[in-house]
Amino acid sequence: MMSINKRLGVESLLVTLLFTLGFMAWNVVQGMLLTLNHVPEMNNDSSVTMLQSEVAFGSITRWDTTSILIAAVGFLLLVAAYYGLRSGIQRWTQRS
């Protein structure tokens, strides 16, 4: 029977959580930089609607049950992949 290393399990959860938060933070920073550096093209025929559509502020996400389930399963798969990779590396280095 395979035992689970609790310290490695907690590390896997924390690393995956930090990776996910870092990815979201990068998207926010990238959007802020794009917004700061955006120079609208001003013509005589520019309309308010066209100017508003040039810079998008975020996206609309509908979090229904399926979306939440897919996100949770994806997160757990990343945790399992990290755990498997780290435990494999640990076993390989102990044999050497």
Topology, please?
Elements: H1 6-36, H2 48-54, H3 65-95
Helix pairs in contact: 1-3
Task: Record keyword descriptors for this entry.
96 residues; mainly alpha; 3 helices; 72% helix; 0% strand
Description of the structure:
The chain contains 3 helices and no strands. By secondary structure, the chain is mostly helical. The radius of gyration is 22 Å and the shape is elongated.
Low-confidence stretches: none
Total of helices? 3
Which geometry do the CA atoms define? Answer: elongated
Mean pLDDT: 83
Structural class: mainly alpha
Spell the H/E element sequence: HHH
Strand percentage lies at under 5%
- The percentage helix is over 70%
Major β-sheet annotation: none
Instruction: Report the radius of gyration as a whole number of Å.
Output: 22 Å
Span of the ends, CA to CA: 24 Å
Instruction: Tell me how many strands there are.
Output: 0
Q: What's the multimeric state?
A: single chain
